[in-house]
Amino acid sequence: MPTIQIRDIPDDIYDYLRKDARANGKSLQSYMRDQVINLARKRRKIESSERHRQVLERVGPSTATLEDIVATIREVRGD
């Protein structure tokens, strides 16, 4: 698994992160790993939503009804 090393963290920020990790019952390494993963997942979700929004702007709203969608699914499945 890849490793990330971060240098030159201000002392007050380091102390805050270390205390927050301890308050959550985690090592600083485990705490920071969770923080980085959560940040990346949030960014990925935001970017995905933005791409979907752009597609909807380009193609416009759908006029398909629920019945149309169900019929198409059944047709594709061969039902």
Automatic annotation (TrEMBL):
Q: Where is the Antitoxin FitA-like ribbon-helix-helix domain?
A: 2-34
Q: Where are the transmembrane segments?
A: none
Task: Report the domain of life of the source organism.
Answer: Bacteria
InterPro entries, per this entry?
FitA-like_RHH (IPR053853), Ribbon_hlx_hlx (IPR010985)
The alphabetized list of GO BP terms reads: regulation of DNA-templated transcription
Put simply, this protein is called Antitoxin FitA-like ribbon-helix-helix domain-containing protein
